[in-house]
Amino acid sequence: MNVGSGLPGVLGAIAALVVGFASQMAQVSLPAFVMRVVSAFVVFAAFGVILRFILAEGAARAELQQVEALQEILSEVRPGATVAELLEAHEGSEKE
């Protein structure tokens, strides 16, 4: 399970709790209280969905770059290369 899967629910719940607490301190009516809490949950849950897609896209992009770097290293393997040379090339590419 990744971090982004629960992000919308967590952000929405925290926002709803904060807004609900502030509304109780201000002693608003019940319909206004419900409207504020539901609105806060929906807005921040939508924000969490957007963040989840951004995080997923970044993770996919990073994985793609790692695969491309590995393919580049493997494409440069020439017949007769020693394991030590291959490991040295792999460690050199990780440092860059």
Q: What does the secondary structure layout of this molecule look like, with pairings?
A:
Blueprint: H1 7-26, H2 30-75, H3 83-95
Helix pairs in contact: 1-2
Q: Which consecutive residue ranges, at least 5 long each, have pLDDT under 50?
A: none
Helix-and-strand structural type: mainly alpha
Structural shape: rod-shaped
Number of strands: 0
* Mean of pLDDT: 84
Structure description:
The structure is a single chain. With 96 residues, the protein is an all-alpha fold. 82% of the residues lie in helices and 0% in strands. It has helices at 7-26, 30-75, 83-95. α1 (7-26) packs antiparallel against α2. The chain starts with 6 loop residues before the first helix and ends with a helix.
The gist of it:
By secondary structure, the chain is an all-alpha fold. It contains 3 helices and no strands. Helix content is 82%, strand content 0%.
Descriptive key words:
96 residues, mainly alpha, 3 helices, 0% strand
